[in-house]
């Protein structure tokens, strides 16, 4: 937040330099009081004068020596004097420019003795706890997000934090057609600085998928991407597949039944509905076992066309 002056004047003290930690209400800069204290004293004297006049007016009014109109005028003068006193007090308080929240002074462009005008920039304060990460979500994915949804953020420094979605824009950016989403997370002691790059992962659900080699994928007569499998009668079937996640080792696909014998060798030589002779092969399991079931349930091979029936 950029802190700005609410009154004008010359800087008499700078109490928080750049990099200093401040609490809410701490004075950052103090301006010269000049004639503000004198204005406050005059306003206080004016209120006392009008208060005495009002009390005398009430006394006269009870005895019938003063009209109601005269009493109202004196009361109005008292209210005006009170308002002027409040304005004088506020104006004197404004010479102390305070931090609105706890944070660190990021910059302070003013120098001792410099003149500050109304709305002049005095300092910039940053509060990194909690930390807010702003991300851009494509328009086709924003419907899967909701407020309060958990997210994991990895920063350019290598640090990670778990947070929750606190804001989803109601309108897409006109240039990129993406939606701004904010993820809020705790950042004790401001360990992670603001302004750095970050990558956010937001889980939107779970799906049952098989891990396969890209070589096992093929196209049917309609040009749809899928997998050829062998059913319980050793006949070739085709399942339209969707890739949900991929890496250098292969792809996770959906569209297959929980258990399937995938043709991993020779799928380009067999047609849908043909009966084949199957030669099973053992798959390789990952260390965490997460792909072992998919490999064991989803691997298989057929012999070359000369061996099929």
Automatic annotation (TrEMBL):
Region (Disordered): 279-309
CusB-like beta-barrel domain residues: 133-202
Domain of life (superkingdom): Bacteria
Keyword Transcription in record: no
Signal peptide range in chain numbering: none
Any one cellular-component term (Gene Ontology): efflux pump complex
UniProt domain CzcB-like barrel-sandwich hybrid: residue ranges: 3-127
Molecular function, one GO term: efflux transmembrane transporter activity
InterPro entries in the cross-refs: Beta-barrel_RND_2, BSH_CzcB-like, RND_pump_MFP
Family assignment from sequence similarity: Belongs to the membrane fusion protein (MFP) (TC 8.A.1) family.
PANTHER family: BLR2860 PROTEIN, MULTIDRUG RESISTANCE PROTEIN MDTA
Protein's name according to its UniProt entry: Uncharacterized protein
Organism: Methyloceanibacter marginalis
Organism phylogeny: Bacteria, Pseudomonadati, Pseudomonadota, Alphaproteobacteria, Hyphomicrobiales
């Amino acid at each position: 937040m950029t802190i700005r002056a609410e009154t004008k004047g010359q800087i008499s003290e700078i109490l928080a330099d750049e990099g200093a930690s401040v609490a809410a209400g701490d004075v950052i800069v103090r301006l010269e009081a000049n004639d503000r204290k004198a204005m406050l004293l005059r306003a206080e004297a004016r209120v006392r004068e009008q208060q005495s006049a009002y009390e005398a007016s009430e006394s006269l009014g009870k005895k019938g020596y003063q009209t109601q109109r005269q009493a109202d005028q004196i009361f109005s003068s008292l209210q005006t004097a009170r308002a002027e006193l409040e304005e004088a007090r506020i104006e004197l308080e404004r010479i102390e420019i305070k931090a609105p929240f706890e944070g660190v002074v990021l910059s302070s462009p003013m120098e001792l003795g410099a003149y500050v005008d109304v709305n002049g920039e005095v300092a910039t304060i940053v509060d990194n706890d909690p930390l807010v990460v702003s991300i851009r979500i494509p328009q086709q994915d924003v419907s899967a997000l909701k407020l309060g949804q958990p997210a994991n953020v990895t920063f350019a420094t290598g640090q990670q934090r778990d947070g929750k979605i606190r804001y989803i824009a109601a309108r897409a950016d006109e240039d990129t057609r993406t939606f701004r989403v904010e993820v809020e997370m705790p950042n004790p002691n401001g360990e992670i600085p603001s302004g750095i790059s970050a990558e956010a992962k937001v889980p939107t659900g779970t799906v049952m998928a098989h891990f396969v080699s890209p070589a096992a994928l093929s196209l049917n007569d309609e040009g749809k991407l899928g997998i050829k499998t062998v059913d319980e009668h050793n006949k070739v079937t085709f399942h339209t597949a969707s890739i949900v996640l991929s890496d250098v080792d292969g792809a996770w696909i959906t569209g297959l039944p929980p258990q399937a014998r995938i043709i991993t060798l020779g799928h380009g030589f067999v047609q849908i509905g043909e009966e084949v002779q199957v030669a099973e092969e053992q798959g390789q399991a990952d260390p965490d076992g997460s792909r072992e079931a998919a490999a064991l349930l989803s691997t298989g091979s057929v012999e070359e066309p000369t061996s099929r029936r």
